[in-house]
Amino acid sequence: ATLPQESCVYDMLQKADSIGVFQIESRAQMATLPRLKPRTFYDLVVEVALIRPGPIQGGSVHPYIRRRNGLEPVTYLHPLLENALAKTLGVPLFQEQLMQIAIDVANFTPADADMLRQAMGSKRSCERMDDLKARFFDGMRTNGITDDIGEQIWLKLAAFSNYGFPESHSVSFSYLVYASSWIKYHYPAAFCAALLKAQPMGFWSPHTLVGDARRHGVVVRTPDLNLSAATATLEPCEGSTGSVSVRLGFDYVRGMGLGLAEEIDASRPFTSVEDLRRRVPSLSLAHLEALATAGAFGCFGIDRRSALWAAGAMSQTSADRLPGIVTGVEAPTLPGMSPQELSHADLWATGVAPDGHPTSFIRGDLTGRGVVTATDLADVASGERVLVGGVVTHRQRPATAQGTTFLNLEDETGLINVVVSKGCWQRYKQIAKGAPALLIRGRLEKEEGVINIVADKLEPLPIGAAPASRDFR
């Protein structure tokens, strides 16, 4: 089926609202979307191709965006490049363009051009490259291209070809980008449930995926022994976007593999904790305690502390014992968990806190210290020093960043991009590497809709439970 091209979907992407979207959910892609401002399908084709090692190392990213936004004229190193590069504003982005350039400027045959593309790939042969380079320059001289211009063309191709997409590859990926974006916009609950079912995958943790869904008005509910399935499902819910909520599956409960989750699902419904223990004997005490901590026994009318008490008592039961002889199942009167304790319990038991982000419980203290939320950063002028805080979702240090580390913080309102210089990282290395949540002071940079905090001071943020970060090099 063909999805309609809708401006509302492109409007969403221009705001970098792309968490969970295929291929464009990384930090680099999300920083590019507000600058590129995709408005057509081919803009997505370019977006997918642009954030690759080849175009980045070849210096294609910033010139393309400046030209795309009318801030720089479209120019060519030589008029013979226009045939290959006109559709990408004079900037090489695709492998096919590398081949066409070789044909146009150096009189290569298509077979020779493909040989050049392969030789410039990851398995380079110096002898082979020297031969092809000599032929390339001979061809350019025949076409009146000076060695100085020829060297610039060659260096740009050599850098770009390190890893660039074929255009056909980028087009195929872009169909999936648009389809993912369209579903996220129109059916955010189904989109979230599908991502949860597909884990582990993608850039963001389940906790962040759920937080993003909640910011889009989707209600996400904890596991329930008589309502959940093995994996995430949808339920009717009038208070949720689209009148549909997400219910976490048993597979999200700590220590619960898919096989055991499916066994519980197949045995539903249950009448009591004892009934569960008897009919699913493979459940260990640890499994029962995790289910209790996750709130899965709420369908039996008991709170989590009482459920934990009952889970301990259930360890006495087995299939060969008569029902009803277990003692101590009913808990004494126990205090209920506070909202913050419930959030910590959810994070421990499922890795997801559907009903409260850890920072929401200390927002009063954070506000008193002058901490600015992710959403309020849009109202701060570029160049001002600010204090931000949140859970660390990612630590990244790309090989091309010369020691700079990029952090993502998440609070209850959204995500914050932080840039940590090599020197700043060294000063606060132990805190930066190990703290699950951070307070960061730095200078706010705002450019073309993209907001970054350039850090100069880091300190740990005591927050209780927090999801684990995803760290990349």
Compact overview of the structure:
The protein has 473 residues and is an alpha/beta fold.
Mean pLDDT: 89
CA-atom Rg in angstroms: 27 Å
List SSEs in N-to-C order: HHHHHHHHHHHHHEEEHHHHHHEEEHHEEE
**How many beta-strand segments?**
9
The CATH topology of the largest domain: DNA polymerase, domain 1
Total helical elements: 21
- Sum up the overall morphology in one term: elongated
Q: Report low-confidence residues grouped into runs of 5 or more.
A: none
Strand order in space, largest sheet:
4-5-6-8-7
Helix content: 40-55%
End-to-end separation: 39 Å
User: For the report, how would you describe the main beta sheet?
Assistant: 5 strands, mixed, barrel
CATH arch. level architecture of the largest domain = Orthogonal Bundle
* Strand-residue proportion: 5-15%
CATH class of the largest domain: Mainly Alpha
Question: Which structural class matches the secondary elements?
Answer: alpha/beta
How many independent structural domains?
Answer: 3
Describe the structure in your own words.
The protein has 473 residues and is of the alpha/beta class. The chain has three domains: 161 residues, no CATH class; 163 residues, DNA polymerase, domain 1, CATH 1.10.150.870; 112 residues, OB fold (Dihydrolipoamide Acetyltransferase, E2P). It contains 21 helices and nine strands. The strands form two sheets. A five-stranded mixed beta barrel has the order 4-5-6-8-7. Strands 1-3-2 form a three-stranded mixed beta sheet. Strand 5 and strand 6 form a beta hairpin. Helix 3 crosses helix 11 and helix 12 runs antiparallel to helix 13. It is elongated and about 90 Å long. It starts with 6 loop residues before the first helix and ends with a strand.
